[in-house]
Amino acid sequence: MKPTHQTLLLATVFPFLTFPSGLRADASAPDDALLDLSLEELIALDVPDVTSVSKRKQRLMDSPAAVYVMTDEDIRRSGVTSIPEALRMVPGVQVARLNSNTWSISTRGFNYIFANKLLVLIDGRTVYSPLFSGVNWDVQDTMLEDIARIEVIRGPGAALWGANAVNGVINIITKHAADTQGGLLSTGFGSEEKAFGTYRYGGELGDDGYYRAFFKTFYRDGLANSDGSDANDDWQINRAGLRADWRTETGAEASLQGEIYEGTTNPALKVFNEDALEQELLTNQSRDQKGGHLIGNYKRYLSDGSHVAIKGYYDRYENYDYRVTEKRDIADLEFQHQMLPWGNHDIIWGLGYRFTHYNLTDMNHISTASPDRTDQLYSAFIQDHISLAPQWALTLSSRFEHNDFTGFEVQPNASLTWKISDQQTLWLKAASAVKTPSISETSVTSRGIAFLREEDSPVPGTKVPDLLAITGNEQLESESLFALEVGYREQFNNRLLFDITAFFNQYKDLLAYVDYPGCLEGTEPHQIYGLCSYDRVSIPPMVEYPTTFANGLTANTYGIELTTDWQATPWWKLQFNYSFLSVDAFSESSGSPITDSYLKGNEALLETLSADHTANIRSHMNLPNQWYLDVWVRYMDNLKNARVGSYTALDVRVAKKIGKHLELSLTGQNLFDKQRLEFSEIFSGLGETEVQQAWYLQLRWQH
Amino acid sequence: MPIINKTFVIFAIALLGSLNPGQSEASSATKADKVKAAIVYKLTKFISWPEKKQTLSLCIVGNDTINSELLKINHKYSSGRRISVTHKAPNAPLEKLCDLVYIHNTKNSTIAGILSDLANQPVLTISDSDNFVYQGGVIGLFRTGSRIQFAISQGATKSAGLAINPQLMRLAKIVK
């Protein structure tokens, strides 16, 4: 029976009465025919998933933190071949490559090789090394096509994530096994990526489960020396992984994943030859690394809509460095419960335990009183998300930890979100975080690894380069941060997103290198210069400055980070981001003029470690006939301490899809400069090499 | 010359970028919305309520782009019953007003409240929220890779007193 005109009018007008006037149903003819299909046909249809993207966009709009999400499409279209290289596109993150397999990655300051104020997690497993308080980026890898997204939260994330999430958290999340079904081959070759190949296959497990397995191998060429000659820091790593996700009969979600890897890197090492009494650059010492991990997850939803989750993982890492052979085991267990006790409170609380065991052997230039040690970390956290009013939300959280270095630590955090409209959000956050001392800062002595730069030699006439011996200090306290952040996000007409964050950070008890009393073994005060020397009479003397750590610095940093996402046309997407950072360091007089001069030197070091400005422009075009053109221009201001000038880099990627399953692409990287020094420093003992212009060809085949 | 190259690239992008963004685009129903609405429509053919019905009242709880698609089912016929589609607030007396409730884009705690109010009532509850069938809902729509599927909770079907045609059970994922 035909509807009457009245009912027809009502049916047409009703949607406009109930929803915002901008909403319009798509009236295309073929899709209306869906109502005529049978159920069998409907459940067999191929339906693209756009809701998870929009859900995530909404979650991001409401988030009271400086969050940046890098999607799998961002990773694929940028042409990067590793996680450290992908992080260059994130606002507020500074990435500088020291040599072929070493990167300095930090956010909001403190650009050391062992950048210790950034917590990095892959699927909830921490990859931060407590030995040298940093991340071994060369072995943090997986099949890039299996990464769902990388969430980077700048600012203290300690309450939810743990100590050492002082300046930020990088959370790498891989795809659910259901989203990586079928086979995928990704292979290619190029000027720096000499050869690479990854193959993954995913299938179903029983009634409600999925799995995937992959194998990845690559061989990367070394970078260049400053004179243009080939540096021998090429490297090669093989990796294999497995993941299974399934649902139990009660509806709980469970997953198990694991990876193993092994490979060889060849960074040049600067070491002191005690017999010849001079600095040597070792370029023939290969460094093998191997390891693996296993992670289990279980999440159960309760009838009131809340959930309970348990995670456990085991991680093993072996590092055969000329200076130390390091074997590390980590076992971690975490429990989390989400409660919805009253209408406007959403509470998550959790408990965690982590056991870390280190075995250090075969040490050259490094010594420690405890080469075999275990450390335990106990933690608890709670977060309450309170809806004060339809547009206002207050989040209060805190983390409580007990560690074996400094004992008990509390890290509270409060944030306020004002949803001005569906398209505008303003948020404010005040947070406190700590960085606990690492094993190397408390109980390791290194000699003959760090050398002062010739131009920095405190006393003229010594046989440069002067040595820096660094002894750990068992009495160290944690470094602490109090941060204030404010951010604003606006979504204009569904095509343009604007996101800006401003922060002010106050650090206390920052570690500084200060004088260590007395000369170390093998050296004694020089008869003329008085400095600790390897030969008390030789002229010029081979000087070693003994140092140790002290919580002697405070610093204030402030800056802004802004991002603009613009879908200019349906086929052209642009992203622009810019960050500014300013660092001011201070020290109090210690009473000793020598210590004070060290502290002044540390102040200057902290203030010149980072670039003041960084910027990125990325353009992604979907051209006719399945051609794709991606362009990425990035700018990094000069790094004064590293003696590296500002630079602009260009990466271009051209790709062609053939049919539904095959993609061929050609990527050019660092196209503006033939080669470029990106970083240099004195503490890691690693030699620096220069990043070169490069290209590579890639084939991706899905079946 | 590197400087000229850099400037050219930046200018080129800036120039192309100055194109007029054009009219604002309204958000519209996705293919997933249409498929879900079509599945809801077709499901009703295979389900009988304890009392014989002339009209089936479908209440939508929640606001999102799928609402316009579900409203297209209004006045359609399913196994001799005329479907009437309306939108309701979560705290409305759904057990009195509805034979079917489609819940979406609603907080988990609100869904839990609705399901407990409708327990043992002859109301068919359908939703695309995660774990709906494990929370007490009758039919849950979920995604597997690129396809949309549905799951039926035998326990919830029984407590609602609904009879489901075996043909439908064959196509569904069955959950106790």
> Which structural class is indicated by helix and strand composition of chain B?
alpha/beta
Please tally the β strands of chain B and state the result. 10
Tally of individual helices of chain B: 8
Helix content of chain A: under 10%
Biggest sheet, spatial arrangement of strands of chain B: 3-4-2-5-6-7-8-10
Second rung of CATH, namely the architecture of chain A: Beta Barrel
Task: List the topology elements.
The complex is a heterodimer of chains A (703) and B (176).
Chain A: H1 5-18, H2 29-32, H3 39-42, H4 51-61, E1 66-71, H5 72-78, H6 83-86, E2 93-99, E3 102-107, E4 118-122, E5 125-126, E6 128-129, E7 134-135, E8 147-154, H7 158-161, E9 168-174, E10 182-190, E11 193-205, E12 209-220, E13 235-247, E14 253-265, E15 269-273, E16 278-282, E17 287-301, E18 307-320, E19 325-339, E20 345-361, E21 366-368, E22 372-389, E23 392-403, E24 407-421, E25 424-435, H8 439-443, E26 444-451, E27 467-471, E28 479-492, E29 496-515, E30 524-525, E31 532-533, E32 544-569, E33 572-587, H9 593-608, E34 613-623, E35 627-636, E36 647-658, E37 662-669, E38 675-676, E39 691-692, E40 694-702
Parallel strand pairs in A: 4-9, 27-32
Antiparallel strand pairs in A: 1-8, 2-3, 4-5, 6-7, 8-9, 10-11, 10-40, 11-12, 12-13, 13-14, 14-17, 15-16, 17-18, 18-19, 19-20, 20-22, 21-26, 22-23, 23-24, 24-25, 25-28, 26-27, 28-29, 29-32, 30-31, 32-33, 33-34, 34-35, 35-36, 36-37, 37-40, 38-39
Chain B: H1 2-17, H2 31-43, E1 47-48, E2 55-61, H3 66-71, E3 77-78, E4 81-88, H4 94-97, E5 100-103, H5 108-118, E6 124-127, H6 132-135, E7 139-144, E8 147-153, H7 154-160, E9 163-164, H8 166-171, E10 173-175
Parallel strand pairs in B: 2-4, 2-5, 5-6, 6-7, 8-10
Antiparallel strand pairs in B: 1-9, 3-4, 7-8
